[in-house]
Amino acid sequence: MIGAITGCTTLAGVAISVVVFVYSWGQRDQENAASIAGLRTAIAALDARTATMTSEAERREQAINSRSAERDAAQQRVIDSLADRLAQVERGRQEGTAALFQRLGRVEGLLESLLGRRQGSPGPDIDRSPEDIVLEALWRRAEVE
User: Fold this and answer.
1) How far apart are CA 45 and CA 54, in angstroms?
2) What pLDDT score was predicted for residue 118?
3) Residue 137 pLDDT > 80, yes or no?
4) Sign (positive/negative) of CA torsion 62, 68, 69, 74?
């Protein structure tokens, strides 16, 4: 009987231990579930914050790239404008030089006619002043034009 009582006591002790173990396991599961839920919430919040920061960084990068592209385009417009202006100045210089040589040719022709070289005379008309000769040549030229 002592053996039966001892066996029952041992069995009751084991049963109590099992109940305590199962209860504590359930408590740990609930605590673990709460911890896991808290961790999942924290991870979701971190994911949302990371997504927000990523989108903000992308917007900033796009804004920087846009400003950089606008600045580069403005610089290119200035360079193109300066190149066009330089080309205009060069064309004007070339045209001005050509016009100057053309005028010099006309003046040379006028002087040669005044000096009589084109008509084969040996030199200018000595009886008249140079101003009279130039005025007469200009008068003749005005009549021709």
Assistant:
1) 14
2) 46
3) no
4) positive
Number of domains in the chain: 1
Residue 118: partners with Cβ closer than 8 Å, 6 or more residues away:
109, 112
* Three-state DSSP state, 128: coil
Residue type, 86: L
Burial class from Cβ neighbours inside 10 Å (0-12, 13-18, 19+) for residue 33 reads exposed
Tens of pLDDT, residue by residue over 82-122, are 999 999 999 888 888 888 888 877 777 777 776 665 455 55
Phi first, then psi, for residue 81 (nearest 5°) are -60, -45
Provide the residue range defining the domain that includes 118.
2-144
- Measured CA to CA, the distance from residue 10 to residue 3 in angstroms comes to 10
Location of structure tokens 């914050």? 49
